[in-house]
Predict the structure.
Amino acid sequence: MVAGTGSPPQTARLQSGRRALSVCIVAYKDLTSNTRVARQAHALAARGHAVTVVSFAPPDPRLVGDRADFAATGVPKVGAALAVAVALAGSILGQAAGGPVRLAAALGGRFGQLRCQQFGLQAAKLCRGRRFDVVQAHFDKALIAAAAIREQCGGRLVFDAVELPFDRDSLPAPADQRALRLAEIAREQEIARTADQWLTVGGTLAAEITRRFRIAAPLVVRNCRQPHLAPDARIRRDLGLDGAAQLVLALNSVRAGEGVEVIVEALRHLPAHVHLAILGQGTDGAGGERLRSIAAAAGAGGRLHLPPLQPASEVIGYASGADMGIIPRQPVTDNLSLSLPNRFFEMVAAGLPLAVSRVGEIAALVDHHGIGVVFDENNPRAAAAAIAEVLDLLRQGDLKARVLAAAHQLSWDREQIAYVELIESLGQQENRRG
């Protein structure tokens, strides 16, 4: 366990006179670039609560400060022996891993596919001897670990469904791995039904979760960020752009459904002084080379830029040096259709007006706040027209003022209030029960 140097003491008391809580947030992932867990942990710790984060690797300390404790498991590794795999599948998945699924799980274990279960064992071991008032699972693959910690350490269970959970669109292709993931999903769904509260990231996703799983509406805690309203020249300097160049920024991974090919092709229809930067995962390999080829074929090879990734704590400041942002996401899966991604809030916090695709809540927020233009995400000409319109509106002055107003309205300082109140309410209920 790696402890923060200034973690709030267990005996700290809130101004209200109530006892400070002990909260565990469990995430089946490397949190180095994750900002949601970091913001939640910081918000709770700032209220005097003791917070423990269990994950593969901890969040960027610049986002959390020294107020939380971190238990880092590393990426779970599972032995190849069939006996170990069967034991893990049986003991962790329980009834969900009977018969043929248990055998499939054992076979999957030979290829390291039992990491969710192994993570659960490691997480519970790291938390042994502690007492928690609330245990929060960061998405579905953390539920098995969260349940193990709750059984051992107590606490109310919160499930943070940051996407549509238990997604069968992304099941692995091999039969044994597919069977194992289905067994995991069955167990995760059992655990989720026992949760005291669900959270999620947007209203559209909350409505679909309510409909699909027949539960009370989750509490919506959006991925709002704190405004960074002093433009930072680093990105322009890194890209070698002069004052005449106008820079459009996409905070995008290069993967299916993100629409980056459309906006690269859109450069063909834009003036030579308009440049595009794509900052995200996958731009430094084959995906980046493919985008460069598209730009070259469009006669815009010198106007596409793929800057290096930035630390999570630096993204908003770095982005603020662009003229505008663009989100070309395509609704090719349920999760993409229902999404309200981090990048929307990051670019608003950076003070950037936006051109966005027609994907549900993103487009609705842009229209509501009057901070940009919505375009057909499948049409490069439409993307180019939207970029040109936003840049033209910027010259008129009112658009920037609306973005700055939206940045304050959509700040994490405002958004965290309901989240903290929920955790405190559940924790006090647990105290009374205990």
About this structure: The first strand starts at residue 22 and ends at 27. Confidence is low (pLDDT under 50) at residues 1-13, 80-88, 106-113. The first helix runs from residue 36 to 46.
